[in-house]
Amino acid sequence: MARNKIALIGSGMIGGTLAHMIGLKDLGDVVLFDIAEGIPQGKGLDIAQSSPVDGFDSRLTGVNDYAGIEGADVCIVTAGVPRKPGMSRDDLLGINLKVMEQVGAGLKKYAPKAFVICITNPLDAMVWALQKFSGLPTSHVVGMAGVLDSARFRYFLAEEFKVSVEDVTAFVLGGHGDSMVPMIRYSTVAGIPLPDLVKMGWTSKEKLDQIVQRTRDGGAEIVGLLKTGSAYYAPAASAIAMAESYLKDKKRVLPCAAHLSGQYGVKGTYVGVPVVIGAGGVERVIEIDLSKAEQKMFDNSVAAVQGLTEACTKIAPHLAGK
Ligand SMILES: NC(=O)c1ccc[n+]([C@@H]2O[C@H](COP(=O)([O-])OP(=O)(O)OC[C@H]3O[C@@H](n4cnc5c(N)ncnc54)[C@H](O)[C@@H]3O)[C@@H](O)[C@H]2O)c1
Ligand SMILES: O=C(O)C[C@H](O)C(=O)O
């Protein structure tokens, strides 16, 4: 059987980490693409030279021409610019929208059958624009944010309860911005919902509120510490989980920025919701029951995302007709 081909569009901090993880997990051959000459080639060669030590056979190559991604099964897009301290993700919209137009053209020409995972920020607006620029089916263009935000939520909860991260399930709905909605009611420790854990005296409502806020601020916390860019280890691990579910038809249920066509009362917008990812791409959008308060927070988050997509159509009016 032929090996999977995984193209990484953008070979910066996340792109390099992705390439390394794909090698270590032996998920397939990797093509690193970037506009910066030498960076994808150098990272590819460096990681390839670790393969005899770690015992993997992935072939890694670096390119500056989209032709190199031809026939990719999966493309993970991190091309663009990350934020620095004092910036919001939304400040990246203008610059990264131009990058999405170039990437979309490259995907359309060379990898129209790929499963595409967009990571570039501001995430929900960029994946929306990338789908339109590329013309690929909405089932095959998805955004990574919910897996990361949920992983942060799970990690903070596991720390609070002093239990294994493995036994904490949690997820975050909505856009990947300040208005994201960590779902307390649907989060558990070994199946015990968080509100029950409050009743059992494991934690307090105030402490949970602090954890929710720390989750919302999770990206900014790392940006404030790193100062030169944003998180990359956890984002890369999150995208790998999505790629693996597609490549191995695992049908994992993961929160992702998915195209909504009426679910949750939303049409034509990408926003974070639980989906099933399998060989068919996004095979199902799962509509969970929301309380009035949860629905209000979700609607508020959707409105924030729609504000950004409107801003995109002002910068690139041709997006409106796509
Ligand atoms: N969705 C999420 O949860 C999430 C998490 C972390 C980071 N991000 C976003 O991911 C993006 C990448 O982050 P990073 O830390 O890897 O940044 P980085 O600066 O390390 O890497 C970005 C790479 O993109 C390349 N690039 C720039 N313009 C390009 C173009 N037109 N075509 C191809 N390549 C181009 C750059 O040369 C650079 O190598 C940022 O926008 C960041 O905000 C999103
Ligand atoms: O916060 C950022 O700018 C990067 C990313 O969206 C994150 O959540 O880590």
Automatic annotation (TrEMBL):
UniProtKB keywords: NAD, Oxidoreductase, Tricarboxylic acid cycle
Keyword Aminoacyl-tRNA synthetase recorded: no
Reaction(s) this enzyme catalyzes, per UniProt: (S)-malate + NAD(+) = oxaloacetate + NADH + H(+)
GO biological process, one term: tricarboxylic acid cycle
Active site (record annotation): 176 (proton acceptor)
E.C. numbers: 1.1.1.37
Pfam families: Ldh_1_C (PF02866), Ldh_1_N (PF00056)
Binding site for substrate: 83, 89, 121, 152
Top-rank taxon, per record: Bacteria
Binding site for NAD(+): 10-15, 34, 96, 119-121
Ranges for domain Lactate/malate dehydrogenase C-terminal: 148-304
Residues of the Lactate/malate dehydrogenase N-terminal domain: 5-143
CDD domains found in the cross-reference section: LDH-like_MDH
A molecular function GO annotation: L-lactate dehydrogenase (NAD+) activity
Oxidoreductase in keyword set: yes
Role noted for this protein: Catalyzes the reversible oxidation of malate to oxaloacetate.
Similarity remark: Belongs to the LDH/MDH superfamily. MDH type 3 family.
NCBIfam families xref list: MalateDH_bact, PRK06223.1
Name of this chain's protein: Malate dehydrogenase
Naturally occurring in which organism (per UniProt): Mesorhizobium atlanticum
Name of the coding gene: mdh
